[in-house]
Amino acid sequence: MRYLDAEAIENIAIGAAFLGTGGGGDPYIGKMMALSAIKETGPVQLVSVEEIQDADFFIPSAMMGAPSVLVEKFPKGDEFVRVFDKLSRYLGIDKVTGTYPMEAGGVNSMIPIVVAAKLGIPLVDCDGMGRAFPELQMTTFNLGGVSATPMAITDEKGNIGISETISNKWTERLARVQTVEMGASSLISIYPSTGKQLKDHGVHNIMTFSEKIGEIIRSNDVEETVKLDNLLTLIDGIELFEGKIVDVIRRVEGGFNFGEATIEGLNKDVDTEMNVFFQNENLIAEKDGKAVAMTPDLICMVDLETLMPVTTEALKYGKRVRVLALPCDKKWRTDEGIATVGPKYFGYALDYVPVEELAAGGRADV
Predict the structure, then answer these.
(1) Cα(5)–Cα(258) distance, rounded to whole angstroms?
(2) pTM for the full model?
(3) DSSP state of 91
(4) How far apart are CA 176 and CA 136, in angstroms?
(5) Where is the S-Me-THD N-terminal domain (predicted)?
(6) Quick one: pLDDT at residue 158?
(7) What is the pLDDT of residue 73?
(8) Which residues of the chain register pLDDT less than 70?
(9) Which residues contact 2 (CB under 8 A, 6 or more apart)?
């Protein structure tokens, strides 16, 4: 057990945005919400899954919708606790033990810190993805048979509701319709879980991992090449490409950001081209027509010099970036995991090949 102060939150916001693979929200917005909360209440208690009891009960809160909308449609501020309280009352639980993040992301890793601060409850160091994914059934809890519902949903106006569904896929379908009607973004509490379920099905130590990543990225006392080497060593990652963004195609549809970024090679990658396809999060990286990384492995775009994560809504012409990749959590590298979040689910005619195999010489046609 330890406490998260302002410095820890700064690091977690950046590291979680990196692991968000382009989605999960803007880290500046997320950290400002979390810093404001701990300024009022004091540091938040972070506990490991080893420190919780099997019978303890936990509820997460998260933002749902198109990340680009959050840039203009900022949360009012009371939605996070409102949706958390609504679900806990519906479940008849007088005292929820704590909360946890549903995914890694600049906003969605910060919202549980806000809830923990305002309610005086601990934050568990685990999540349900180990990265960010665009749909609600795309969690390791779903793979473990945990129900996403009952789920509470609210917006900045005060509309609020509870859903109980026949499957986690139906949870996604119905919540997506509500989110679109709420202005393409909403706040949800979902996957209420016991301590045993967090231990068995969560991705452990995600906040600590995010903090370590953020600490490296924010360090200013090392050379650029050393910082990159330190980051790749920590994440067991691969640098796929260096280049300048020359085109971005994006659209908001059905509560998602869809798009493609075209990157013209620089330095060692001169005279080559990379295309990164995304749906909220980066899903496929293609170099000169060949896939070099694919979901569920993490494809992360960062600033060429500072290594600060670049979210999909921040992609723009002329931006110089590095494209990095790292292996996903082992829970995703199962038949059910690949069926749930692999390239074919998103409409790409690709058989999943781990990023480390692609880097060793294996490639797949898009």
Answers:
(1) 35
(2) 0.95
(3) H
(4) 9
(5) 8-162
(6) 94
(7) 74
(8) 362-366
(9) 45, 46
